[in-house]
Amino acid sequence: MLAPMEDVTDHSFRLICKELGADMTYTEFVSADALIRNIASTTRKLHIDPAERPTAIQIYGREVEPMVEAARMVEAAQPDILDINFGCPVKKVAGKGAGAGMLRDIPKMLEITRAVVDAVKIPVTVKTRLGWDHNSKVIVTLAEQLQDCGIKALTVHGRTRSQMYTGEADWEMIARVKENPRLTIPLIGNGDITTPERLCEAFDRYGVDGVMVGRASIGAPWVFHDMKQMLVNGERGQELSLTQKFAILRRQITESIDRIDEYRGILHIRRHLAASPLFKGIPHFRDTRIAMLRASTYAELDEILTLIETKILPSVEQ
Question: Which listed residue (17, 88, 149, 200) is catalytic?
Answer without folding.
Answer: 88
